[in-house]
Amino acid sequence: MLAVVPPPVTVRVPSKINLHLSVGDARDDGYHDLTTIFQALSLTDEVTVAATEEPGLEVHGEGAKSVPTSEDNLAWRAVQALAEHVGRSGDENKVHIVLRKGIPVAGGLAGGSADAAATLVGLSALWRLDISRDELAGIAATLGSDVPFALYGGTALGTGRGEQLVPVLSRHVFHWVLAFDQRGLSTPRVYGELDRLRADGDPPRVGSHDPVVEALASGDPRQLALLLGNDLQAAAVSLRPGLRRTLRAGVNAGALAGTVSGSGPTCAFLCEDAESALEVAAELAGAGVCRTVRVAHGPVPGARVVGGEDAP
Ligand code: ATP
């Protein structure tokens, strides 16, 4: 009897920005406790997983050349982690993965984490696993602290290393302009720079996240704009001083406010509405302060199968 080969599964997965990122002091193990508010944005990657005799990984799109195709790729780590969790081994795990990247690599938008989350969701459908999103989130947390959020999407408060999530009510669609820098920034390097800045002085820290939660519930972008804050911004700007100019240019172009997303170097600009975002994007693109510009909105859902009968 011929074995039935299941059709490939494609998953779309959002990027994230941090509307608020409070970073605690370095712990003895080198990690930092975080309090962050994530929002999932419509700038996405697409991940296709297919059963195959010849496993492999292809990467296309934004920054494809700098993405490892070896087992260092977070998508491979997701395959391994899920297979171990459900006790699959050998030939059963042979998959071909195609990553179509819209999210810039090492941009502070958690693109690698997004691909890991998408791979978990794609394989759950491909392998017809009876597994809940919460169970997947447990596996996701072992892969990286931003991976669980990419599964759920929306807007959420993250604590611990960012992996302990509580949804946050967000009443409005917020419109963003994203400015991509020429090159990525290494997340560990940015944390190291923050530790150095704190050892040398006392850079200002963001306050409580409570007002941000209130602004999200009110749905008023002007209120939210006053509260965007990121403890990693000073470190990212210290390593990449040109970001100061990018942040200024976005506000000069008409954005309500700008912030470095996560460890940077992507800058995210909050705009009044969709029309204003298009205007800000056009002006920023002409200002020569960044490699490229995208508009996006949020919140959007987490990793989802697209098309086909497997879509939940
Ligand atoms: P974070 O803020 O979560 O650290 P980031 O958005 O700044 O992430 P990523 O795009 O996730 O950065 O990439 C960080 C590094 O991870 C890259 O330099 C790359 O070597 C590695 N990496 C592993 N898997 C992937 C993947 N699927 N896509 C992109 N980068 C990947």
TrEMBL record:
A single GO BP: isopentenyl diphosphate biosynthetic process, methylerythritol 4-phosphate pathway
Keyword Lipid metabolism found: no
Keywords: ATP-binding, Isoprene biosynthesis, Kinase, Nucleotide-binding, Transferase
EC number: 2.7.1.148
GO molecular function, one term: ATP binding
Pathway: Isoprenoid biosynthesis; isopentenyl diphosphate biosynthesis via DXP pathway; isopentenyl diphosphate from 1-deoxy-D-xylulose 5-phosphate: step 3/6
Record domain GHMP kinase C-terminal: where: 213-286
GHMP kinase N-terminal domain sequence ranges: 73-154
Catalytic activity as recorded in UniProt: 4-CDP-2-C-methyl-D-erythritol + ATP = 4-CDP-2-C-methyl-D-erythritol 2-phosphate + ADP + H(+)
Active site residues according to the UniProt entry: 16, 146
UniProt cross-references to Gene3D superfamilies, sorted A to Z: 3.30.230.10, GHMP kinase, C-terminal domain
Pfam families: GHMP_kinases_C, GHMP_kinases_N
Taxonomic superkingdom: Bacteria
Keyword Transferase assigned: yes
Annotated binding of ATP, by residue: 104-114
Annotated function: Catalyzes the phosphorylation of the position 2 hydroxy group of 4-diphosphocytidyl-2C-methyl-D-erythritol.
Similarity-based family: Belongs to the GHMP kinase family. IspE subfamily.
Name of this chain's protein: 4-diphosphocytidyl-2-C-methyl-D-erythritol kinase
Organism from which the protein derives: Prauserella muralis
